[in-house]
Amino acid sequence: xxxxxxxxxxxxxxxxKDAFRVLVERHSHALFRLAYRMTxxxxxxxxxxxxxxxxxFRHLNRFEPARSFGAWLHRITVNxxxxxxxxxxxxxxxxxxxxxxxxxxxxxxxxxxxxPDGAAIHAELQQRVxxxxxxxxxxxxxxxxxxxxxxxxxxxxxxxxxxGTSAAxxxxxxxxxxxxxxxxxxxxxxx
Amino acid sequence: xxxxxDEQLVFHHYQVSDDGHSVEAHLAGCEACRARYQAxxxxxxxxxxxxxxxxSADYGRQVWQRLQPRLxxxxxxxWRRLFERPSLPSLPRWWLAPxxxxxVLAAFLVGLFWSRSRAQDTLxxxxxxxxxxxxxxxxxxxxxxxxxxxxxxxxxxxxxxANDSKAEARQLVQALHDxxxxxxxxxxxxxxxxFRNWEEDNAAAYVTLRQDLEELASLTDKEMRRARSILVxxxxxxxxxDPPFRINK
Lengths: 191, 249
Ligand SMILES: [Zn+2]
Hints:
The complex is a heterodimer. By secondary structure, chain A is mainly α. In chain A, 79% of the residues lie in helices and 0% in strands. Chain A has two domains: 1-88, RNA polymerase sigma factor, region 2, helix turn helix motif (Rna Polymerase Sigma Factor, Chain: A), CATH 1.10.1740; 96-191, Arc Repressor Mutant, subunit A. At the A-B interface, α2, α3, α7, α8 and α10 of A face α1, α3 and α4 of B. Residues 3-4, 26, 30, 32-33 of chain B line the site of zinc ion.
């Protein structure tokens, strides 16, 4: 039978550094997905996965065995992703700051093409979603990403955020409202 | 009839409703809410789902290969852990500086003791010599980092106090006092643990070390008192309130 995460953690804590490999192999794919959803960039996501495991190893003594090790790792991934997004050089900020201007682009798009081109709208939507995600708080972004894209349970989201289920639901709700506000004007153009 | 809230609609969409059945029943009988729900679903379903790039089946192994050499950096010497305490990440630690000075001194004295002990084996003594130098270098760099951090922390504190009202600044200072107090207790334990380590490893150097550590304890006590008086002084000097004060940043 496969050892539980907690059993492996115990082994690592007892000094068996190589046992950590089991945890890395077990959780890498899921962490990559989450990191990619959070950062929107493949290479960043790879780096976040590395950083997550490094931090987890370094602070393994802070993990409480009664909790879910997966949720603990996800939490570190979220933190690493947020840190990375904050460290981003200003050009990303600029592209986000430019999104209000995109409304002009849409006006001209709507004016020049009687039925707006689907691909253009799709691209614009994608950009809008990224921009909207960038404006969410860390909690909102995490909750929204985990629920909307990954279909995670509210309990899991709560565990990742370190909050109860009702607070986790509130994060999802606030995230949705903000994303919605960003997208609705664009969608009304297509109707 | 009371209509459904946006919140209820969002929760229903994501199937995290506590009252799914009553929401369902309401939607079945209320055209207005049904239209709002449809609008919500239209927006959420329009969000493009970018596929997550594929990672090969042996991705975990690749991650491990990249990670493994970096794990060795994580085996932190116990004295360096003094600076990486989990519970107090932002605490000003300027009072650790004299502690480190004393430890450098202790290492030096232990080194002296070792060189006096005339080890039969010259190789062993050379190893000890190297170890001592390493210790001293480590303590020294820890000391430098500590000093840098503490002056930054103090500057930040000063700036913050300057913007807060007096009463609230006092509250903040009280909170800091408590934190320092707790850190102090923790540090005593840490020092004791360090001492025990050293005692085990170097039973012969025990006496010298004990004196140094006692000296160290009194130094850090003095430093604690100094830190507190600086805090109190800062609190007393702060100008009248400016923006509303928030203790949680
Ligand atoms: Zn209704």
